[in-house]
Amino acid sequence: MKIVPFQDLRMLHEDINSEINLAFEKFLSSNHYILGPELEAFESEFADFCEAKYCVGVGNGLDALYLLLRAYEIGPGDEVIVPSNTFVATWLAVSQCGATPVAVEPDVNTWNIDPLLIEHSITSNTKAIIPVHLYGQPVDIDSINEIASRYGLIVIDDAAQAHGAKYKNKRIGSLCNATAFSFYPSKNLGALGDGGAIVTNDEIITKKVRLLRNYGSKEKYRHDVLGHNSRLDELQAAFLRIKLRHLDKLNSRRSEIAATYVNELNNLDFILPTVSNWAKSVWHLFVIRCEEREKLQLFLKNKGIETLVHYPIPPYKQLIYNQLKVKNMPITDMLSGQVLSLPMHPSLRNDQLDKVISSLKEFRKLNS
Ligand SMILES: *Cc1c(COP(=O)(O)O)cnc(C)c1O
């Protein structure tokens, strides 16, 4: 049986094979492996891409969030508002700096954090909000910034799934106080290993993250702040520079696939993603809702179609967050029981896409 893979990074890299190999040879003979010219060039190019002033490359997306929280001096006793419906890393960053994540439910249509519910969760200890542009769709940034400015809160947006996405025609990356990106291989902009970055217009925060990522050291062997070792290395930066040049094109292919899914699956009784009219999603994932999710996933699996669930267990139900005693989150629970991510990646061929669509139609015919 021919498999329709959920993700195919090998195919993607085959298309840019010669560029990647050239970059590797240049890197190998450069004598710069950490904090060198490739990283500097990538930081400048990615900041430009994001329509922002500054970018600092770090070890991964979790560290990007964590180092930003540290740079804003958020720590023990502080509360940070996070979506209940996100990958656990958003919460882990808050916990790692000693602060407490406070969960807010998503909007039932967009599946992103509901700005209307944020205000109820603000206390005198709240210091920041971390909205997540889930599955590639921007959150309602203006509404969140408005609440934040009324209460004097910092907004750090988690854009690990949203490289290149636009909010009201502006790129994600300079619209909140600071933005965190991940370059995990399967993200829209992915390294060939781990990587991450912070992007911002704030010069002071930029300098602080530069210190924090490098042992808290401005001057070699002098340490004024408790730092870390979390740097985007030269090799990954070199690869990311190449992949950045292809990003818009690859995101367009994702949009094309999403449009086909939406057109073809429209009247089949699956709940399809709702994209707000001010949002330009980059379709990191194409997620549908189905009440018989397990049955559908098995049906597709038997046809060789790989699907995944993002995410089967919400962070508040993880063992590590038992002590938070979060009350029930009905929308989050409903989503985690119903969501299914269909194959979505730029190398997905039209014949593979057709097979996914016809299989979904067949499932409906057999189960309605
Ligand atoms: C991937 C991801 C992260 C973490 O990024 P890593 O580079 O894997 O540490 C954080 N938040 C969200 C929403 C993600 O999807």
Notes on the structure:
The structure is a single chain. This protein has 368 residues and is of the alpha/beta class. Helix content is 39%, strand content 14%. The chain has twelve helices and 14 strands. β2 (79-83), α5 and β3 (100-104) form a beta-alpha-beta unit. α9 (234-265) packs across α12. The longest helix is centred in the last third of the chain and has 32 residues, at 234-265. The radius of gyration is 21 Å and the shape is globular. The site of pyridoxal-5'-phosphate has 15 residues, from α4 and α5.
What structural keywords apply?
368 residues, alpha/beta, 3-stranded antiparallel beta sheet, 14 strands, 39% helix, binds pyridoxal-5'-phosphate
The gist of it:
This protein has 368 residues and is of the alpha/beta class. It contains twelve helices and 14 strands.
